[in-house]
Design a protein that fits this description.
Low-confidence stretches: none
Helix content: over 70%
Number of strands: 0
Structural class: mainly alpha
Mean pLDDT: 78
Largest sheet: none
Distance between the termini: 47 Å
Order of helices and strands: HHHHHHHH
Strand content: under 5%
Oligomer: single chain
Radius of gyration: 18 Å
Number of helices: 8
């Protein structure tokens, strides 16, 4: 089976998705940040991605930090306006409220461990910016969280690939399945919103 497109495009595509998850709030509608990272590690573990796992982890950490800093910049620009934003396809106020409650109680813990929690992860940059946190402090905590989160998720997939190298013959189907899951979820969300609007 030809997997050249995965070898050349897989890491770039996954890095882009890691970036936009927090950089543009797409984590609210695109599930599977963990799934994508695990898949990246698996691709590397079965040698479909011809990339050292340390280099892959470094690339994805940089993408995640860049996404967080972009979200932080957006939070500085929009300020408190997000709290008065009506529900849209990309944004649900209840998710913001849940994340804000968690952030108020544990601001540093939210940045460090919140990476492992999908909704908290998406809103962390916005909440940190609107709270007035200085960007160097935010960068320190979010970078620490990114290193832990991405290393754990990617290495879990990598070790599975090394333990069961036979998965390599199915890796294209696995990757297509992950992409289909993302696109299918987007389509389902759009359909639900259109039904609510029609109702």
């Amino acid at each position: 089976m030809n997997t050249a497109w995965l070898e050349w495009g897989g890491a770039t595509l996954i890095a882009a998705l890691v970036f936009v998850e927090t950089g543009f709030l797409l984590g609210l509608i695109v599930p599977g940040g963990e799934t994508l990272l695990f898949t990246a590690g698996l691709l590397c573990g079965v040698n479909t991605l011809q990339l050292p796992v340390v280099l892959l982890i470094g690339l994805l950490i940089l993408a995640a930090i860049a996404g967080d800093m972009t979200g932080f910049w957006i939070g500085r620009k929009i300020g408190d306006r997000l709290r008065h934003q009506p529900d849209t396809f990309l944004f649900k106020r209840r998710y913001l409220e849940q994340s804000e409650n968690f952030y108020r109680k544990h601001p540093q813990w939210a940045l460090l461990a919140g990476r492992f929690l999908p909704i908290i992860r998406t809103f962390n940059p916005l909440l940190a910016a609107s709270s007035g946190m200085p960007w160097p402090r935010f960068l320190f905590f979010t970078a620490t969280g990114c290193v832990a989160y991405i290393s754990v998720m990617v290495m879990a997939g990598y070790w599975l690939g090394k333990l069961y190298p036979g998965l390599g013959q199915y890796i294209e189907y696995i990757f297509i399945g992950v992409v289909t899951l993302v696109i299918g979820t987007l389509a389902a969300k759009a359909w639900q919103n259109s039904r609510r609007s029609a109702g």
